[in-house]
Amino acid sequence: MSKANLLNRREVVSALLANRKDVVAIGGLGASTNDICAAGDHARNFYLWGGMGGAAMIGLGLALAQPKLPVLVITGDGEMLMGLGSFATIGLQKPANLSILVLDNERYGETGGQTSHTSAAADLVGVAKSCGIADSRSISTMAEVEAFAKSVHDVVAGPRFANVKVDSAEVERILPTRDGTYIVNRMRSDLGFAPI
Fold it and tell me: Is residue 195 part of a domain?
């Protein structure tokens, strides 16, 4: 895909969360967490500050524990490459309420911008499909992003996976709190559970 066709990551995340209703959004390490916070801090945002490669599995755990709740994981290509095994587990468990979207800038943004494997041979959509996630697609337009955002609310037709090629422009970091206990307890409270 040419650079002219790359989407703006902040616009993508903003569109995903514009009409979020009861969606829980889990941000992957680094930029995707900043993008989610830039779209608006929310009690149902779960910011992952560490544990690279774990966002999809955190999403899986929450989706299995709360099957009527739409769960959206927004992460980057570097993190998804580190957690490729999660595709196999998600494909086996088939949580209908789980959606995963990768913001793929073909870079390892948190370690210096080195070129990631998605710039060459790694096909995340192909991996997801081969692991049993039948609804796996590449997205290249904002109209497709908006359609995916609507599908996230369908908690009986998942799991679904989308890979979006985005630009690697540097944007202002919008940093949410790093207080893990606060983030967890705020979400638990919003979902009707006691704090831990």
Answer: no
Average pLDDT of each block of 10 consecutive residues along the chain (196 residues)? 77 96 92 92 90 90 97 93 94 98 81 69 94 97 97 94 90 81 94 91
| Burial class (CB within 10 angstroms; exposed 0-12, middle 13-18, buried 19+) of 112 | exposed
CATH code for the domain of 69: 3.40.50.970
DSSP 166: B
How many CA atoms lie within 13 Å of 95's alpha carbon, on the beta-carbon side?
29
Number of structural domains in the chain: 1
Count CA atoms closer than 13 A to 1's CA, side-chain side: 19
- What range does the domain containing 168 cover? 3-190
CB 166 within 8 A of CB 102: no
